Every structure is written in C-alpha cells, then in structure tokens.
C-alpha cells in the first residue's frame, strides 16, 4: 500500500488549526445537568499534514474539567472528513464522526453509537467559529439541541 500524502482536502482542515476559547451552553443529558461552560479547543497539524490533532478542555461551575482528545483527518477511500474523539465520559471512540464541508466554512459531521446519534456543525467566520451539537438519545423520535458554543482565536 502506498503512502498517503496530504492533499487539498487535508489542507482545508487547516481552518481548524489554532487556539480557540469561548462560551458554551448545554442542555441536560443523562450524564450532566444543563449549564454553561468556558472552553478551549487547541488544534494543531500532525502526522505530516494528514491530521489535525485536537485537545479540548471545558470548565463548568468549579468542578473537575471535562477533557477531550482526538483528531480530524480525511478518509482516503471516501474523501469524507472523519473525527475520532475520546472524552472524559470514558466511552471509547468506537466509530468516528463522518461528514463533509457544506459550502464555504461549514463542516457537518455525524455519528451513531449505542447511546444515540449526534450531529455536529462547525461554522467558521475568520477568527471565530460556532459549534452546534444536536443529539437523538435512546428511542427519541427527533434530534434536539445539546450544545451551542461560540469561540474566537487567541
């Protein structure tokens, strides 16, 4: 198997790279109550340009921080953006989120797990981005808003 080299799809992920801070609002879930948080996304290029490595830290109400780590890359077979992500809830990343760019500056990703389904939308505007997460948990009939965040580059 030949070596995969970064291409235009990998380069497009470069919009993610940087240090980002912002505020998030969360709906209640079986894992946590509704609330707000101050969060940081630290994203850097890695694996010779084939991935964007992601570290996440969220501070809510004086408790222990909520942490996450993952990476974005491009599936060479499908061209889809994939995002593997593990967080401090402890559930392993059994499957990545998958999706693609929707126009200029909008990345849409989704995944299904035994706990439900999640849809993420990242909207980039220069040195700012919005991150929306909608979920459908258990046997719910429809998706509902879970998180809304606004971040700026520092």
Automatic annotation (TrEMBL):
<dbReference type="Pfam" id="PF07617">
    <property type="entry name" value="DUF1579"/>
</dbReference>
<dbReference type="InterPro" id="IPR011473">
    <property type="entry name" value="DUF1579"/>
</dbReference>
<protein>
    <recommendedName>
        <fullName>DUF1579 domain-containing protein</fullName>
    </recommendedName>
</protein>
